[in-house]
Design goal:
The chain is mainly α. It has 2 domains: about 90 residues, no CATH class; about 70 residues, no CATH class. Helices cover about 75% and strands about 0% of the residues. The protein has 5 helices and no strands. About 10% of the residues are buried.
């Protein structure tokens, strides 16, 4: 596997970390639902241009798609809208430590069952230890947040 492919998840993480506060900021100006719509409209137009220039797929295959294969956009809506709602209340750090934890737990489950044809990777003790460390990390972030709030309120 080339290094370029391994950089893609780092780019994804960076984009998600930037996208949420940017969208939340827009949401404060125009509303959460409206900011979500702008997010998808801008991304949709950009993707349409990319597909028109470089697309080589076969749209006829869409007729054979299982309904579950069409819900990715709805899941994207959940990510964008809920980020717009959560980031102003929790902050980016807390929102994403919780989100990444859920993502990792579900990723282990989905890999284990080979969901939607992804390569199966049965759960093993190393994966469980990794998940436990992630959960411990989230607990530490929450603990630090609580401690800093107490210190700010004079509670030490």
């Amino acid at each position: 596997m080339g290094i370029a492919v391994k950089l893609l998840p780092l780019i994804i993480g960076t984009a998600l970390a930037l996208q949420a506060p940017i969208n939340a900021s827009l949401g404060r100006l125009i509303g959460s639902l409206e900011a979500s719509l702008v997010n998808f409209a801008v991304g949709g137009v950009a993707l349409l241009v990319i597909v028109l220039i470089w697309g080589t797929g076969d749209w006829a295959g869409l007729r054979q798609a299982h309904p579950l294969q069409l819900v990715g956009g709805l899941l994207g809506l959940v990510v964008v809208l809920f980020s717009i709602l959560a980031v102003p209340r929790l902050g980016a750090k807390r929102t994403f430590t919780l989100a990444v934890t859920a993502q990792l737990v579900w990723s282990v489950v989905l890999d284990h069952i080979g969901f939607m044809g992804i390569p199966r990777a049965p759960v093993n003790w190393r994966a469980l230890v990794g998940l436990a460390l992630v959960v411990a990390g989230v607990a530490t972030v929450e603990w630090a947040h609580t401690a800093s709030r107490r210190a700010g309120a004079g509670g030490g």
